[in-house]
Design the sequence.
């Protein structure tokens, strides 16, 4: 988490890191290690999603003529992933339901990432100056530092108070993670 470069570079590195975590889950045998990798995957996906919702999608709405439609579709993708992550929280990594849910989650995330990298990011690069992309990258990195680390499917990212709630929820999540050892 927290790389360098413009928003496209930042989010693309996140996408690669998530893919590596999926591979680790799928190719690790001990259930405890799979559970830890799934927890790290959840943390990274939630942070990434919150940063996109707070900064990338408002930029899409501003810079694309069809930005509202695109941002709403992206938010719907995030809602589906967050629901899957919430379902994953309660599963035993040694059970068959865990593997099934990981497969569904990976398919959902892979489709979302492909669409962003092949369609959204090239359009964004064309629509924005390099300075604007760099500034967005800085804001995304900052948002990830304070973002929640656990799924909260009931949260409403489109509401104006979302940033305040996100920061507070992130603080609570990180305290819970620290006390439980989650994500280490």
Sequence:
């Amino acid at each position: 988490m927290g790389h360098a470069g413009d928003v496209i570079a930042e989010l693309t590195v996140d996408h690669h890191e998530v893919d590596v975590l999926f591979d680790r889950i799928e190719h690790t045998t001990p259930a405890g290690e799979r559970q830890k990798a799934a927890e790290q995957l959840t943390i990274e996906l939630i942070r990434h999603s919150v940063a996109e919702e707070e900064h990338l999608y408002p930029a899409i709405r501003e810079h694309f003529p069809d930005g509202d439609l695109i941002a709403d579709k992206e938010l719907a993708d995030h809602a589906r992933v967050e629901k899957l992550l919430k379902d994953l929280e309660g599963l035993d990594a040694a059970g068959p339901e865990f593997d099934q849910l990981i497969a569904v989650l990976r398919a959902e995330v892979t489709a979302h990432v492909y669409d962003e990298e092949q369609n959204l990011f090239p359009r964004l690069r064309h629509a924005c100056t390099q300075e604007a992309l760099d500034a967005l990258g800085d804001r995304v990195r900052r948002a990830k530092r304070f973002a929640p680390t656990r799924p909260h499917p009931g949260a409403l990212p489109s509401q104006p108070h979302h940033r305040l709630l996100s920061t507070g929820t992130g603080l609570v999540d990180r305290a819970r993670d620290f006390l439980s050892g989650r994500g280490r």
In short: The mean pLDDT is 87. The radius of gyration is 16 Å. Helices lie at 7-27, 31-63, 67-89, 96-127, 130-146, 162-180. Residues 148 and 169 are 6 Å apart (CA to CA).
